[in-house]
């Protein structure tokens, strides 16, 4: 049995320290996706006005594709015994991987700040005498403590949270569906638009897929001979079910209230209409959901920081991330909706071509020697070239104006033709994967 406080950071996990069950992959990703960040996608989907069958298709398809990518990445953990961003070294090289480590550090900080805002909003809503900045600090302090203990405590916490959140979100969904006539009213006004369907699919996919750079962080202690198929199924299933569930709750609450803001307080107010006990359930569910997701965010953030600068201690990297993330949350807290929506799609641009190359490396070229992480090439230029070309090919499909809430007023010519629908991550994933496969052939991680 491993020590209660995790000793290692980004080092290789030796056989003597391998332990755990694949079932915990399900509960970790289930709890991590029963959050208001997922819930907030429901109102976005509601605003698109798609017919119910098309909406269901976008929800199911987007979540399955994104969840499968997370599962495929998680299955790399036992083979390599390293965090996901360190495994990336085997594909891009020890130095060539640094830009991705930096990108993931920034990404995880952003998600951490988003969930810190959510937790702060909930505390401030319950007791307005607590200023938002103080509420955010209370939230991040709780998350810091769990993440500080590390891998095993995180898995145990997420297991408990998966049960609590499962019950609470079940109550939320049941209440949201108590007014079927409102769904009938929505169905009468809904109309199919292929561009809106593309937006819905991309929005759903982009959220769950963004967990990809975290995946092996929470599977790397499993024994090396652990069934890859079980890891893929458990991780994907946990994420897909929870994400789908949360988004349906968000959509149903929007139908019942007509409110498309995505703010967590809308759910509390809605459930409060059925009694104070239900309002309390909503408050607890939202706070614990933010906790479940944010522990993963800040833990992975600390590992990414160590991949950039390995002379620091894990607790030092963790403390630095919490400090910076808390400041970001306090600055972004004044404009939650714009901050969240603008953040969601923008960060995903770097992730999908990166994932595509990793999957080809591991599953097609079968580069599975963990020593490549520490002793491989400094830079794998062919992999970086495949990544850059794949990303560039996707630029005409990007809608940066929507992704950045107008900060970068760029709409690619193809995205413009598609009515603003941004499908660039699908394009970059496919393009980078194919180019890498052609350039590398059967070469297992070397130039």
From TrEMBL:
Compartment list: Membrane
Chief site of localization: membrane
GO cellular component: plasma membrane
GO molecular function: transmembrane transporter activity
Keyword Iron-sulfur: no
UniProt keywords, alphabetically: Membrane, Transmembrane, Transmembrane helix, Transport
Gene3D superfamilies reported in the protein's UniProt record: Hydantoin permease
Keyword Transcription regulation: no
InterPro entries for the chain: Pur-cyt_permease, Pur-cyt_permease_Fcy2/21/22
Membrane topology, as annotated: Multi-pass membrane protein
Transmembrane feature ranges: 26-48, 54-77, 98-124, 130-151, 158-178, 190-210, 231-256, 276-296, 317-337, 343-364, 384-403, 423-442
Family annotation (Pfam families): Transp_cyt_pur (PF02133)
Family of the protein in this entry: Belongs to the purine-cytosine permease (2.A.39) family.
Cross-referenced PANTHER family: PURINE-CYTOSINE PERMEASE FCY2-RELATED (PTHR31806)
Name by which UniProt lists this protein: Purine-cytosine permease YxlA
Highest classification ranks of the organism: Archaea, Thermoproteota, Thermoprotei, Thermoproteales, Thermoproteaceae
Gene name linked to the record: yxlA
């Amino acid at each position: 049995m491993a020590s209660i406080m995790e000793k290692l950071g980004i080092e290789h996990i030796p056989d003597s320290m391998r332990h755990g069950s694949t079932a915990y992959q399900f509960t970790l990703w289930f709890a991590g996706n029963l959050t208001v960040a997922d819930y907030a996608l429901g109102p976005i989907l509601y605003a698109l006005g798609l017919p119910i069958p098309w909406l269901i298709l976008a929800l199911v398809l987007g979540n399955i594709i994104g969840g499968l990518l997370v599962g495929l990445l998680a299955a790399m953990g036992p083979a390599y015994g390293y965090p996901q961003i360190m495994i990336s070294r085997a594909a891009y090289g020890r130095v060539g991987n640094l830009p991705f480590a930096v990108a993931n550090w920034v990404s995880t900080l952003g998600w951490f700040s988003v969930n810190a805002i959510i937790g702060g909003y909930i505390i401030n809503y319950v007791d307005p005498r607590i200023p938002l900045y103080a509420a955010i600090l209370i939230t991040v302090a709780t998350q810091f403590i769990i993440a500080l203990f590390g891998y095993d405590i995180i898995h145990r916490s997420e297991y408990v949270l998966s049960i609590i959140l499962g019950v609470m979100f079940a109550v939320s969904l049941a209440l949201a569906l108590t007014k079927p006539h409102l769904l009938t009213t929505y169905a009468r006004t809904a109309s199919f638009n292929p561009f809106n369907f593309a937006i819905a699919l991309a929005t759903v996919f982009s959220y769950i897929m963004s967990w990809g750079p975290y995946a092996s962080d929470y599977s790397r202690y499993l024994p090396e001979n652990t069934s890859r198929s079980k890891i893929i199924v458990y991780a994907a299933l946990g994420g897909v079910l929870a994400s789908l569930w949360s988004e349906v709750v968000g959509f149903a609450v929007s139908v019942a209230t007509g409110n498309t803001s995505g703010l967590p307080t809308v759910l509390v107010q809605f459930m409060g209409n059925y009694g104070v006990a239900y309002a309390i359930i909503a408050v607890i569910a939202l706070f614990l959901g933010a906790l479940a997701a944010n522990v993963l965010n800040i833990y992975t953030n600390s590992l990414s920081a160590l991949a950039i600068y390995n002379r620091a201690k894990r607790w030092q990297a963790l403390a630095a991330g919490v400090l910076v993330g808390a400041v970001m949350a306090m600055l972004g807290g004044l404009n939650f909706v714009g901050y969240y929506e603008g953040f969601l799609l923008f960060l995903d641009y770097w992730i999908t071509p990166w994932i595509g190359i990793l999957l080809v490396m591991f599953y097609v070229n079968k580069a599975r020697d963990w020593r490549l992480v520490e002793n491989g090439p400094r830079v794998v230029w062919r992999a970086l070239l495949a990544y850059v070309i794949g990303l560039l090919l996707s630029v005409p499909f990007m809608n940066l104006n929507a992704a950045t809430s107008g900060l970068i007023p760029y709409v690619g010519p193809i995205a413009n033709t598609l009515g603003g629908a941004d499908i660039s991550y699908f394009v970059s994933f496919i393009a980078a994967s194919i180019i890498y496969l052609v350039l590398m052939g059967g070469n297992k991680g070397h130039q």
